[in-house]
Amino acid sequence: MPRPPAARRPAAPDVRPDRRLRAFVITVLVALSLLAGRLVQLQGADAAELAQAALDQRVHTSTLYAQRGDVVDANGVVLATSVERRDVVADPSIIASYNTRSDGTARDGSLPQGAAGAARELAPILGVDEAALTTTLTGSGPEDRYALVAVGITPELWQRVSDADVAGVTSERTSQRIYPSGSAASTLVGVLGTAETEDGKTLDRPLSGLEYAENELLEGVDGEVRYERSLGGQEIPLGETETTEPVDGTSLHLTIDSDLQWKAASAIAAQVEATGAESGTVVVMDAQQRLLALASSPSIDPADLTDFTNEELNNTALTESFEPGSTAKVITMAAALEEGTSTAASEFTVPDELKRSTKVFHDSHEHEDQQLTLAGILAESSNTGTILAGEELDAQTLYDYQRAFGLGEESGMDFPGETGGILATPEEYSGTQRYTVMFGQGMSVNAVQAASVFATVANDGVRVQPSLIAGTSDPDGNYRAADAPAGSRVLSSQTAKTLRDMMQAVVSEEGTAAAADIPGYLVAGKTGTAQRYDIDCGCYRGYTASFIGMAPADDPQLVVAVILQDPKTNYYGGSAAGPVFKDVMSYALQQRRIAPSTAAPAGLALTWGAGE
After folding, report:
1. How much is the pTM?
2. Among 87, 112, 459, 512, which residue's Cβ finds the most Cβ atoms within 10 Å?
3. How far apart, in whole angstroms, are the C-alpha atoms of residue 393 and residue 163?
């Protein structure tokens, strides 16, 4: 008989569910306590830090560019000013999801998505390649929040871009410098170039002229604005905003006359081309040595800075030094007259050649012995005659007059690249330099220094430091005149008048600059034809041709200096530089309504004795 199945033992009570429940409850409590602790940390200790981090992500900072000061001429005509422009920037992280307008409404479904779609819409407006713009708007990666789309567009074009309503595309206000006078005043006013920053932005930087010299005054101080913006790049209306207003730059008022500057620039450019000269310069100043024009050729077109040389940036009237040649004879004559060693009628027997120290000096043209007065020596520009008159002065006395006329030092205008020239002291002279400086060799000047000598004679012997800036005006338009430069007497008024009378003969038929004569006006001036020192070979090669004069000689109002460096077809000062003087001075006299001369020509005797 089968055995009945064994009865099952009752199962032991299961205590694991309680353990599991307790473990679960403990785990939940621990998790909740951790969450609670983290919540306390976030809402308490880290709240300010996290809030600031979130704000930093929303806050955008833009530069508020200061308006650069203007440069204007003596009549308020603008020579340099700034106009508003816009740089278009984009946030590639926003552009990546492009398919909606900034207000969230859907766009045309036919447009591509992301950067390609934005580029298709913006490229025709900006006039750029669509594929290249797509690359720009794509950025360098998901973290890229800044892309420079377009630089320096007009406000009108930016309005068209803005009307396209592409989320993530905004603009930054900037400016563009423009020069209404073009190349005529570019070497004087100077130009602004651009420098690229690390983030691809371009910033203006002064390259030359007054833009460089007065940059701290002109540029002002930029401000900035910080504001909260949405993911679409739009400003949050009630968000945090902080603005530091920019301080606009100060404007410069020059003594320059823009019309006269244009005339001088065009006249010298034409003569540089006609004579094949390396360069040319015209300086126009009044008798009080206010500069009315500083023109140089070659010059630079400030509207096209794609290709230029440093030489084209320089205003040679101040940056180029040269041996003045015979125009410096005026200083020797002035010293002789003022010191009483000669008068205009003093008589000299002038040979064609004269040996002094180790050198035989010659006149420019071979001649028999001449019987010339001091006035005749100046009129014929005799080197040997000038030595005869000049050696009656001791070397230190002549040097003192050269310094008193402003040679050997900069003008004080702090113009970039200005040269003070070279003027050796008597202790530094070589054996022949004692004599060469009498007729303007063995020394160097710039064109403004050379013109200043004649302006001192025109101003009855009182030298005034040349001036270029008449005053300034602050951003509110308040004008402040520049301090008047001090004057110093170099010659007596009688000596100055005698010199003017002597220089009238230079422009006569008997003189060396008949081409500088102006009908109706008495003109006093002096030619210069100097051997030109060439730094490349360390030798004399070519010539410097010049003419500097004043008008009306009976009541001097204006001085014009014309300098041509290394002219090829004609290198004599009277015939190469004289016609430019006549052209520019005639224009200036008429423009400024200066009355013709009423006095008779001086008519000083140029010869004596049998040849008189």
Report:
1. 0.83
2. 512
3. 81
